[in-house]
Structure formats: C-alpha cells, structure tokens
Amino acid sequence: MREDRLLPADPGTRAVARRLYEAVRDLPIISPHGHVDPGMLLEDAPFTDPTALFITPDHYVTRLLHAGGIGLDRLGVGEGPLTERASRDAWRLLCENWRLLRGTPVRYWLETEFEDIFGITERPSAANADVLYDLIADRRARPRELLARFGIDFLATTDDPADDLAPHAALAGAVRTRIAPTFRPDAYLEPARPGWAGRIERLAAAAGTDIADYKGYLAALENRRRHFIAHGAVSADHSHADARAEPVDNPDRLFQRALTGDITEAEGTAFRRHMMLEMARMSSEDGLVMTLHPGIHRNHHPATFERYGADTGHDIPTTVEFTRALAPLLARHGTDPGFHLVLFTVDATVYSREIAPLAGFYPSVYAGVPWWFLDNPAAIRHFQESVTEIAGFSRLSGFIDDTRALCSIPARHDMSRRLDAGYLAGLVRTHRLDEDEALDTLTALVTDQPRKVFKL
Amino acid sequence: MREDRLLPADPGTRAVARRLYEAVRDLPIISPHGHVDPGMLLEDAPFTDPTALFITPDHYVTRLLHAGGIGLDRLGVGEGPLTERASRDAWRLLCENWRLLRGTPVRYWLETEFEDIFGITERPSAANADVLYDLIADRRARPRELLARFGIDFLATTDDPADDLAPHAALAGAVRTRIAPTFRPDAYLEPARPGWAGRIERLAAAAGTDIADYKGYLAALENRRRHFIAHGAVSADHSHADARAEPVDNPDRLFQRALTGDITEAEGTAFRRHMMLEMARMSSEDGLVMTLHPGIHRNHHPATFERYGADTGHDIPTTVEFTRALAPLLARHGTDPGFHLVLFTVDATVYSREIAPLAGFYPSVYAGVPWWFLDNPAAIRHFQESVTEIAGFSRLSGFIDDTRALCSIPARHDMSRRLDAGYLAGLVRTHRLDEDEALDTLTALVTDQPRKVFKL
Amino acid sequence: MREDRLLPADPGTRAVARRLYEAVRDLPIISPHGHVDPGMLLEDAPFTDPTALFITPDHYVTRLLHAGGIGLDRLGVGEGPLTERASRDAWRLLCENWRLLRGTPVRYWLETEFEDIFGITERPSAANADVLYDLIADRRARPRELLARFGIDFLATTDDPADDLAPHAALAGAVRTRIAPTFRPDAYLEPARPGWAGRIERLAAAAGTDIADYKGYLAALENRRRHFIAHGAVSADHSHADARAEPVDNPDRLFQRALTGDITEAEGTAFRRHMMLEMARMSSEDGLVMTLHPGIHRNHHPATFERYGADTGHDIPTTVEFTRALAPLLARHGTDPGFHLVLFTVDATVYSREIAPLAGFYPSVYAGVPWWFLDNPAAIRHFQESVTEIAGFSRLSGFIDDTRALCSIPARHDMSRRLDAGYLAGLVRTHRLDEDEALDTLTALVTDQPRKVFKL
Description:
Chains A, B, C: InterPro entries: Metal_Hydrolase, Uronate_isomerase. The structure is a homotrimer of 456-residue chains. Chain A has helices at residues 11-24, 38-43, 50-54, 59-67, 84-96, 105-118, 129-139, 143-150, 166-171, 196-207, 214-230, 251-259, 265-286, 302-308, 327-333, 348-359, 377-391, 408-429, 435-453, and strands at 29-31, 152-156, 178-180, 235-238, 289-292, 296-297, 316-317, 341-343, 365-367. Chain A has 456 residues and is an alpha/beta fold. In chain A, strands 4-5-8-9 form a 4-stranded parallel sheet, covered by helices on one side. Chain A is globular.
C-alpha cells in the first residue's frame, strides 16, 4: 500500500503533509461515537466468515452493491448466520463487482483493512475471490485482539436506555480499551411512533419505578442516564427528523394522551421538540455530552424496510435547519458551564452556513466532523475549509468514525489523519500557519480535542 | 490551442491526466439529450450567417451580452433571419465585448469551436470582427458534414409528443449518426397552463383517437410514446417546478375540470404531480428512460418573455428537493427491472445531499451529470468529487451536452473528457485508483455508461 | 512576513500569481461599504489602547475568544473606555489564546496589521503580551495618518437616515480620501419593531417636514436620500430577514396603524417587503446603488444581546432565497438604465444557484463579493469559481471589506488581491485565459469594477 495515499499531489505540500502525518499516525484511537456490538466484544469469537465481517452488517457496502443491481438477499442481509456456501457466494459478488466501489471511501477502507489486517494486497476479482475468502477466514481474528492491535483507547457503543449494559460491566476489567455505552433515547422521545406504551413499560422496568405521568417519565429518563454514567457513558446521542427544540405548555397532557395511544403525529412531534429542551437541561445537569444529527429521511424504500429492516442503505439525507431550530435551546443552555453540544449533519451546506457560526460563538457548541455520506475525502476537505476558516480548529469535535464495522475503525481514523495532515500542510505552504503550529493542531485534533469535547 | 488546457496544474498529475485524455479524445460522441433542430439537419443548408450560428439561438451567449448592457434586439433575438448588415452588427458586438465572456465556459467552447471548425486562433476583437465574420461565413459548413466530422454516433433531439417526427424518419437512412427523438410532455401534464384544451386536441389528433376522459388521455400518451419509440426514442424528459410525485384520488375529476378550463393552479399542480407517477409507470412498462430536471424559475423577466419568448436567458435556478419528493415514485418503481430514472438539477447542493445517496441505493436511479448553469469546470469538479465519492462512477449518466448549438457539441464533450481525465488522474496520484482502473473508468464514462443508461 | 502567502502552492501557478499580484498590490483601495466611525476620523485622536483598536469593537475577534470560553466582559465589550489595567488584561487574553485563531482569516488579518503597521513579527503569546501592548500603544497612530498610509481613495461609512452627516461635511476638504456616507434605512422600513413612532419623528425632524401619512413618509425618505447624495453618498444599504419585495394594496392603511403601534408582526413584514420595491424605485430615480444582504438571524443569544447589545458576535446565517423573492422587483426595475442592485449573502449556496444566474442576465444586478462569514480564503475561492464561471468577471462588485476595524482594511484588500491573483493564475495555467487578460481582469477587479458599480 502506498505510503503517500491521500496526501496532496503538489510535491512541496506533500513533503510537509508527510512529516505531519508521520508524527500522529501511531497515536491511540479515540472513538467517541460508533455502533460496534458490545456483545461481540464480550463473546470474542473468532471471525471465520468474511461476508459477516465485511459485507452483511455494513450498509456502506451493501447499498453500493444493491445500486449495482445485486439484491440484498444475495448478500445475506437479514438472513442471520449464513452457510459457508451462501457466504462464499456473497463474497464472490463483492470481489466480482469490485469496480462498483471505485472512487468511494468504502473501497479505500476495505483496501486498507485487507492489507493491514490480512496482508492482502491483490485487487479483489472473480479470479481470486475464493483465495481471499480463505485467507480471511483462516486468520481467525478475534475482536479483542483487533481492539488491542488497533490501539483503540476509547470506544463508545450506542445503546438503548433500557439496556442493562451488562456487557459493558463485564468488559470493564477485561480489556485495556475503555468501552463506554452511549445513551440513545430517540424512540423514547417520539410518542406517536408505534409501540410507545411498551417502550415506556420497558423504561419503567429498567428504572425500577412506575411511570404514571410526565414527571415520572422524566425521573425514569434521569435514572437511566445515571445508570449509563455509572457504566462509563460520556454522551447522549439524538437523531430526529429535524433539529427543533421548543417548549410546549402542558407536556403532561400530551404524555397522558400518548400513553393511551391517542396522540396525533403533530402532537408527537411537538412533544419530541419539547423533550429536546429537557434533554439539554439534563445534559447540562448530569454532564453527558449532547450529540445531535438530524435531517435523515429514514427507510426511504418501504419494501426493503419491510423485508430487511432498518439500516439497510436507504436512509437518505434531506435539507435541515439549525440556526432557528436551536435558538430556544441555546438561549437556555448555550453558555451553561460544562454543557457540550456537538452538532452533526449530512447536509454539507449547514456546516458552513449554520454550525460553524454557532460553534464560533457559543462555548458549548462544537462542530461534529463530517460523517456518513460526508465521510469521503472531498467532503472532509470541504468541511475542513468551510468550518475551520469560520470557527477555528478548537471548535471541532475531532474525528468520529460512526461505524458498525470493527475492522474499519483504524482505516477510517487513518484516512482522517492523512486528510488533516494534508489540509494543515496546505496552510503551512501558503504561510497561514507555521509548521510547529500545524503539528500541535494535528495532535490536538487526533487526541486532545476529542478528549476535551467528550470529557474523557 | 494549447494541448493541456483544463488539465490539472500540478505537473505530476497533469502527466497522468494527459495519458488518460489521449486515450479517449477521439472516441465517438454519444449525446443522449440536447436541443438540435432535426429540421436543420434534414434541410442541410450551409451556415452562412455566423450570428445565426453562434449567437441568436444560444441563450448561453446572449444572456452574458445582455447582462453587459447589450439589448437582445441588437443581437437579433426573436427577429427571424437577419439581414447581413444586422448579422454583422450583432457579430461585432460579440467580438467587441469578448472580455465579458472571460472565465466562463462559453468563452472556452467558442474558442474551441472557432479553432477546430474554422481554424481561427486569433482572439476576437473590434479590429478583427469582420475578418472573422467572413472566415466563418465563407466556410459554408453544412450540418451533416459537421455531424460526421464531429464523430457523433448518437444524437437525441427534444420533441413535442404531437410531433409526427417526419424529419427523424427521413434522416434515418441518410446520415450515419443515429438521430433519435425525445418525448417531452411537460405542457401536456400541466392542465392549469393556458391552452390546455388545444393541446389535448392536438394530442388526440396525433394519436388518432378521441380524448374524452382521463383514460383516453393516458391511452393517447401511451400511443405517442409508442410512436416515439418506433422512431428511435430512448427517453422521456421532464422539467417541472418541483420533483414531487404524488397520487390523487380522482384524476378523472381533475381531468374533466381541466377540459372545461375550470381548474385552479393548485389542482393543476396536484394533477401534474400525479402524472409523474404515471410517467414513471409508463417508463417502467415501455422502457423509455425517464429524465428529470426540476427547480427552474422560468421566464424570470416578464418583459423579456413577452417580447422575445422563452429560452432567452432568464430561467433562474432556485432550491429544489428530491428525497421526500420522489419517495412515492421510488416506493413504486425504484427497483423495477429495466426502469431507469436519471436525475439532474441546477441546485448543486442537491447532487451530493440527495441525488448521490439515491443513486447509491436504487438500481434504477442514475445521477445525471451537471449541466446548464453547472456545466463549467468548477461545478463539474464539485460534482465529480461530491457525487462519485458517495455513489461511485457506475451510477453516473455519462456526459450530457444539453445544447441547441450544434457546433458546441464536440467542444462540450471535449471539456468533459479533459475534466474527467483530470479528476481521475488526481485519484491515481493520491493512490486511490490504479492507472489501469482510471483508464477503464474514463472509457466507460465516455461511451459504455451513456450507452447502458440510455439503453443504446 | 512571507511574500507568497495565500498564493497557490503549485510552483508554476504561483509564479504567474506572483507577477499578477505584484502589478496590483500598490493600487489604491476603494472601499464602498464598511463601518468605520466618521467621528473617529474627524477627531483624529491617537490610538493608545490596543484593546480598543483590535478587540473590543470587532465582533470577528470577540466571538472567537467567547467561543473559547472567555466572557465578553473580560474583553471589555460594552464597557466604554477601559482603564489601562482592564485593557492590558483583555489584550493578554488575546495573546495567550492566540491559538484559538489558527486557520481563520482573523488571525491572518491581525498578523498582517501587526507587521505592516506596527512592525511586529513575533507570534503573540502570554510571554510577549505586554511588550506588544506597549509597542502598539507607543506608536500613537492616528486615524487620518493611517488612511493616507493605507492608500484609501474612497471610504464609505454606514449611517442612519436621520444623521446630519456633519462629520462627513467637515472631513470633505480635510483628508484626501473621499469619505462618503451610506444610507441605511433598515429600522425605518420595519414598522413592527419597537420604537417606530420615535423613529418616524426623528426622520421628520431630519427632513424638516411633517409625516402624517404614507405619502409624507415617502417624501421624507426621498428628502433624506437627497441629503445623503449631497454629502457624497453613492449607495443605500439594506439588510432584512429575507430578500422579498412585494407590493401591498394599501400601504397607507398599514402606515397609519404602525403610527398608533397597532400593527402585527406579519403586517410589519408585508409593509417592509412593499418598501423594498419603493427603495428600488427611489434608487432607480436618484441613482443610489442599492445593496442587499438578507438572511441573518440577528442577536441569536438573548442574554448576550441584553447585556452587550447588537453586533456582538451572535448574528448567525440561515437559508435565504433570492430568485422568487426578487422577481417582482426585477420585473419592475431589472433593466432600468442606471439602476444598480448589488446582492450579497452569507448563504454561500445562493451565490452560485441564484445570484450568479441573476447577475448573468440582468444588467442592473451585480454579485457582491463574499463577506462576513464568507470572507475567508476557502469561501472566497468557492465564490470565485462558482460565480465567475456562471456570470463572468464583469458582473462582480469588486472587493467589499465591510469592516469596522480601520486597521484591517488594507489587510483585507491585500488578501483579496492575493486570492484573485491566485485564481486568475490558475485560469492562465489551465489555458483558459491569457496572462495579459488575467492582468487586465485583476486590475479591473481592484479598481475599475468597484468604481463602475458604485458610480465613483
């Protein structure tokens, strides 16, 4: 694999970028938000199925193959454990259609993972599909071994508020990486979504209380946040259709109607927007960092959702607004000491137009780095330029990998380090920053900044 | 003319780009969407009027001169055939005001055309205006000779559903280029626009049926699509104020009211959105590729529209939304085998935020390349980066020139090939693609991909 | 300070850029819009307080420090003249936190100012804060001396319509720079904002008339515009929540209700949108260039506004629309001879999607250059590419510094000249422009174009 990949093409700039990158390439990985399954880490079974490792659970990969005409059924999505035959067939489809990934970061990450973890440097193809399959399967890599090898200091998972977090507790002494849960209450804040009563029951059971009214509901949420904090959580993560936060006059009335199922879509939305203010208040009080990433049209293709479930590649971004939406929340908590609000978006224009100016004034607001559809080199460069030049480096969250693919974590962080090195090298070469400052900034972005923002 | 124009400035990247470009520069031109007049090709009269060739019909040129203070009347817009005196005067205005075109692709295309077709390498000016005029007029270029010389394999025109397509039939054996009509039914789908009854009459006459109700209307549209397909059409093209596709409960009721002229603006819009679903259904059934490019505020300046008509340079983009708008259409037809939906926009942010993610999941959806206001090198590079890195190269339509200026076709395709070569060279130089893959990708973009997407 | 700062990294392109930049670096400065206090120029007291010179009045600087956790009180915002102790403390905070400015244009401007005006080349830090303080204070620079030294030919201030403009009159013969007022009537066009009756009284007093009705109100505005023109004004500047211009049927009814305070928010907005048409009419008649920059959510943080007032760093951009909004205004005045409408935005996507196409057709419309949150190198490059390639260079306003920090004027113009030189050099290196054209274009952007657009 080429040493200089992703570094700027201009030789003078590349030389600076290379020096900067070398200085941080081996620093530990801080991963404050992602979707690795803690049960998998607890079980620590060896990976013997390349398809289960690289394809089936990763909608980054499956959506590109699906767009290329390969049905999700042929990739084993939603099928549970695959037979070796089915797994080999799916793997062969990836290798045969390798060209579908050209130009995407998915290709880049996979290539990095193949080489770094499995020593594979050949380009996948129909011809070598089975050989590569065997190479990966025979390696029998184990999750915890990879965690250690990747140098991951901190790894956050994403968890249901009613989760007992037993895997986290069990892992606490067992691995050197700190594995922290993340409080993700979306479903518990949207009362018009089907199944509300059941969710409230589960929440009550987990909190060990009754939830008879709005007050009891708030208390249960606060209780679960304390449980998460006791298990090492540092943040609460929120993703709704929009970013609005607005009080309602009588939340208890809406709460009661929700319990009986007699609540309209609009009322449910009003309640959820009200709860965003409450979530900010709780974060301000208990210290959990609040992360926000609205503006996704989820499960765009109903037939795929019905057959294969959520997170199968058809969550599609749309426009989203932050400036007006967050005004009430920031009026209340924008300068609260210790309150941290990290804003993400998949509408790239919002980063420069709204998030950077907000982060460039409010001490509580940090610009979350580009992720999901924006985690490619071009989108990252656009982010670097448009956010940094408005808000400075100190207002960034540091890199977030947001991945459910364990093996892709170091590849993603490495991409980020290379691109940050390249961007900073450009500032040095145009005399906007001295090289010692660039090095200091890069080191901060990789370790100090995420530690500060996520209070590690 | 300089060999390396538009190629990346960095010498290492430029060397790769040059190799890539050389390999595709002479490949045939596939032009699946444009506005060349088929009657002109049939008639094949020599071009003796440089103004009629380069200025009057081309709103790309006239709008820039108009913005510079030159009234459209002085350019002969809307005047019919010009006297030589008027033509020379208009031509002189272009040459004298050549600096107004600096930095625009219009200047680049004209420069390329002047040199490649007419051997002109001097910069136009007041001093040489008449000499250049004579050079071009004396060349007496004929449309079909240019078609052949340009190496155009496939050329689509844009046509009214009631058109008999006689020129296409007559040209079928006469030229080596395949000249195909395109079904463009916009006016036949918007019942609140003046003249609806007359249009429906013309449609009925063309289809040889009566249109008494909604059912008859659908049948007539289907009939005309078959007529177009019989004359070689491969696509149906749609441009409305928005991209929304939504069913109405009783389309026949709206259709009846439209026939009597008793339909509101809002009802007309509802009917049109309903018809987008029908158009998708028809495309899914008869195989015509569906192309969509909404979001233009047409005829922005009423006084100019009244005096000079449509397409005179004041169609102005505005915001447009695809994700929510197309959800019902893609729920129905998004995975239909053989259904192709090519999405264009002049709101550049939509390409990365919405179109690329849609094309990166739905096998039917292709990202149409940037055109119109986005057909300049910077917008094209932005598109390359932001769309490719999300959806990969295989989800692109290939280049679309969308021009009514015959002579600009090779210049536009050449610009595209150079920019694609440059972008791919950048991927090679940052080790994201091997050079053999880049070459394969470039060749696909130029010929294989448009052939596949437009089913040639 | 490095000679080549901000010039392109590619050596070949940089060489061209350097030649272009050298040719314009010492041309006079034209500043057609800004916020320098004319009273300060009249008084011409020496600057003995570095904090008052560089920090307190400049929300560019204070917002970045505030985001970094430094309260505005510690920076002396809203405190009036500071004691030397307080001033030194605030200055020290800037120097200690110098790293907060990395990557921002604020850092670049300050660095330029420190070296060019005060000979300071050291990087500010806790260690040298007091030495730098003394260096700046001891220089005892005077405003008029700086004006002359900076080579400012034309400087526009921003003024209240009721202002007598006495400082401008007094300065007329006293300095070589032409100091022109700018008519800024925002508050006089928004009748639902508190204090309307008082404002109308002040307007009447200034105009020397009674304002009993809408007609009298229009006459008073016209009168004040004449007063401004008599004092050298060349433009009227407008910034409202949106860009809409729409007639109301009975403006006098709304005006009467406003006088009694009995007007709703919505009616106030309707009246303001109506008045935008009137403002365009007046500009068309009296020749004042109309500048427009809507789309800011002002005073986002109420607590900060209440304690420190407006312009304290929390005006946050949001989305804005021009195409539909301005259609009625441009239908009436878009081709009026002598009418100039300069459009600015802080929603960068609007420049390419809407403003450039409008400026590329209407002879009255000019694309104002990027400012405020868009005045950084990356945003400026994005603007250059996306606007120029649609509308050409001749549709640009030339650089606007929009600053209230006198010392930053030459630094900002220098940044612009460097970036324009770099962009043009790129066009030369990719063979899109000859070098003589690039030089001619750059000179025009620096002097001829602003002189033409602002009728100097």
